[in-house]
Design a protein that fits this description.
Elements (H helix, E strand, L loop, with lengths): L1 H4 L4 H22 L15 H8 L27 H15 L7 H15 L8 H6 L3 H16 L6 H17 L6 H10 L9 H6 L6 H12 L11 E2 L5 E5 L8 E7 L6 E8 L10 H9 L3 E3 L2 E3 L4 H8 L6 E11 L6 E18 H10 L6 H19 L7 E9 L10 E12 L7 H23 L5 E3 L8 H5 L4 H9 L6 E3 L24 H14 L8 H35 L5 E11 L4 E6 L4 E6 L9 E10 L7 E6 L2
Parallel strand pairs: 1-8, 2-8
Antiparallel strand pairs: 2-3, 3-4, 4-7, 5-6, 7-8, 9-10, 11-12, 13-14, 13-16, 14-15, 16-17
Helix pairs in contact: 2-3, 2-4, 5-8, 7-8, 7-9, 15-16
């Protein structure tokens, strides 16, 4: 082989041959042992070389195709038997059979081609083109290394990963790249086998599309809807003016609002309408199973990764303006002075959305119109204020925080210009310690109200639901924290003492941070699987069929969905951090105004700040004495977007 491949490989090929001969000696010794401890650990690194060599070399005794005999891996040797004679060969072949053939010559030839592509001498190729070409093994090895390395912490077979890591790291070393997951992704991007700006976590989740069975069922449900199981009890509310309030970019419209004047008494009733995908879905069908696997939709800077097929979710299930659509509606009679619930009703309904409003548009109506001009909208605003006062009086914790709005223009990737990234402070999503008359406040309070009504309905009817419980936090130095004037800094110091909400599927318990006696989530069935389960449970009882799920079944499904949702949110956070690092990498010289929030470690001088313009919170070393709410000037010193999910953006204080 050394002569055939040229002088450049002479030394390495001879080293391979020496290593192989050593391993064969180990195997020969093992074949004469009573117990097949057939390989010494010191020779384990040479097994990959043996695997490569086996593809080009005949085995002893002229054998090239060896049988797979699992018995060869254990048990005492039977003297004089053919099994004992072939043991070293069958052990070796069983190991090799699960690994990909990838020779040293393949590695060198692949690396030369990669260098020509990165130098611009040859064009990039798509993944399909690579898979159909002579270097398919090299690309597949890198892909397996990337996905295996990312998933190893989630239980991927370590031995299976080890069999490709040697080959992949050899290629990366020859190319001068770090022999890491990040280095492998960079190579794949440079040759066109990996989409630019696609994080490994997103690729591993495999959420690019839906399978044929799911897509086929979605088309069928849209073209030929099944019989409505709630047709006889579905209440017609199409005569009510119904509005939806969302961000301008929202495509999955889960909720709408109406105000009804009750005949005979003049009392006004609030209606919270929730999209009703279970009018079409059935437990166990393909879309239901896929939604259970995904657990939630996630929103990333480049778009939405939906829980359900996009067309049916945004057109059939969503509360779309201008056409009758099915909903699960909660009607509430509210004490407008105290915010308490006087009476309620839960019904499957048909509604007609008259207006699709944005948060900004709603704020404009409330700012520029009057109650005489738009009585329904101002009634919703007053109801939201009453509910906020009710919860605040019950000990609800209110927060002040901004969230960044990250927008990505992928069209600028063409021509090597890179993606265009903008980050703005999302004022529409601001939560404040005082009530503000806004579209965000209306939607937030009405969805919390729906959660309380749903939990109260479950309690009154003895129905198992995923009731959310939250213990009241104990805030150390509460007087000192409440004395902080800056509302964002005060929130940051209070949040340290908060714990995560827990579920109790048997009976409702208080939700201290919301200031409610009981609470469940049911307002987002298009993008949250647990809400789909709640709808199925509620409607089954309303039809007189009894609960569909027991408390134990609900707890098991909710727990499974929780872990999937946690992983999805982690990937979404990695996507945000990638684009934040990308954004700051293009603004390394800029100085940013920020607000000091709290100390992370006073001994180490590490504190949290909020960058005022973009609403991003981050930790950095603070070199001067600082108190919560103090203004600081900072700048980025390192910003490295990484597709392996470990993006870095670091800041320093500017004096």
């Amino acid at each position: 082989r050394a002569q055939a491949q040229g002088p450049a490989l002479d030394g390495e090929a001879r080293s391979e041959e020496a290593a192989m001969r050593g391993v064969w000696r180990q195997l020969a010794i093992a074949s004469r042992s009573a117990r097949p401890a057939w390989i010494d650990p010191a020779a384990a690194s040479s097994l990959v070389l043996l695997r490569q060599w086996s593809a080009h070399t005949t085995f002893p005794h002229g054998t090239t195709a060896l049988p797979h005999d699992q018995a060869a891996f254990g048990g005492p040797r039977q003297r004089g038997s053919q099994q004992a004679t072939d043991r070293p060969r069958t052990c070796f072949r069983a190991l090799c059979s699960t690994a990909r053939t990838f020779s040293v010559r393949d590695a060198y030839r692949f690396c030369r081609l990669v260098n020509r592509i990165t130098d611009g001498e040859e064009a990039q190729r798509t993944l399909e083109e690579w898979r159909q070409g002579e270097h398919a093994g090299s690309v597949e090895t890198l892909l397996a290394y990337v996905k295996g390395s990312y998933g190893s912490s989630r239980g991927v077979d370590a031995l299976g990963l080890g069999r490709v890591s040697h080959d992949a790291q050899r290629v990366l070393g020859l190319l001068g790249q770090n022999r890491t997951l990040d280095g492998a992704v960079r190579v794949l991007v440079s040759i066109g086998a990996w989409k630019p700006h696609t994080l490994v976590g997103m690729a591993v989740l495999d959420r690019d599309g839906f399978g044929k069975e799911v897509a086929s069922l979605a088309r069928k449900l849209m073209e030929d809807p099944p019989e409505d199981p709630d047709l006889s009890s579905r209440l017609d509310l199409t005569h009510l003016r119904t509005v939806t309030i969302d961000d301008a970019s929202t495509t999955e419209i889960d909720d709408g609002l109406s105000v009804e004047t009750v005949e005979g008494c003049g009392r006004r009733r609030l209606w919270v309408h929730i999209a009703d995908p279970t009018r079409w879905l059935r437990p166990g069908d393909a879309i239901f199973a896929e939604a259970a696997r995904r657990a939630t939709s996630i929103y990333v800077p480049t778009g939405v990764v939906p829980m359900m097929p996009y067309d049916i979710a945004t057109r059939t299930f969503s509360l779309v303006k201008g056409r009758p659509t099915c909903a699960l509606s909660l009607g509430v009679d509210l004490d407008m002075e105290t915010g308490e619930i006087l009476d309620y009703v839960v019904r499957p309904t048909t509604i007609l959305v008259d207006e699709r409003l944005t948060y900004v548009g709603t704020d404009q109506i409330l700012r520029e119109s009057s109650e005489e001009e738009d009585p329904d909208m101002f009634y919703l605003a007053r109801a939201a204020r009453a509910r906020w006062g009710y919860r605040k009086g019950n000990g609800a914790e209110t927060f002040a925080s901004y969230s960044p709005k990250i927008r990505v223009d992928r069209g600028r990737d063409e021509g090597g210009k890179g993606a265009g990234v903008t980050i703005e402070r999302n004022d529409a999503q601001q939560q404040t310690v005082e009530y503000t008359q806004s579209g965000q406040s209306i939607v937030s309070e009405m969805m919390i109200l729906a959660g309380e009504v749903g939990a109260r309905w479950g309690k009154d009817n003895g129905v198992p639901l995923p009731y959310r419980m939250h213990y009241k936090p104990v805030i150390p130095d509460e007087e000192e924290v409440t004395a902080i004037k800056d509302k964002f800094a005060r929130t940051a110091n209070m949040a340290k003492s908060f714990t995560r909400a827990v579920l109790d599927c048997r009976r409702p318990r208080p939700h201290a941070s919301l200031g409610l006696p009981y609470y469940t989530q049911l307002s987002s069935p298009i993008r949250r699987f647990n809400d789909v389960l709640v709808h199925l449970q509620v409607k089954s009882v309303l039809r007189g069929e009894g609960p569909l799920y027991t408390a134990d079944e609900f707890a098991e499904m909710a727990e499974a969905a929780f872990f999937v949702e946690r992983d999805m949110k982690q990937v979404a956070q990695q996507c945000d951090e990638y684009w934040i690092a990308y954004y700051f990498s293009q603004r390394m010289d800029r100085v940013w105004d920020s607000t000091f929030l709290s100390w992370k470690s006073l001994e180490e001088g590490m504190g949290y700040v909020q960058i005022d313009e973009v609403g991003i919170k981050h930790a950095l070393r603070v070199d001067t004495p600082a108190v919560p709410g103090q203004k600081l000037r900072i700048r980025a010193v390192q910003a490295t977007p990484r597709l392996d999910g470990n993006s870095v953006f670091l800041f320093e204080q500017v004096r």
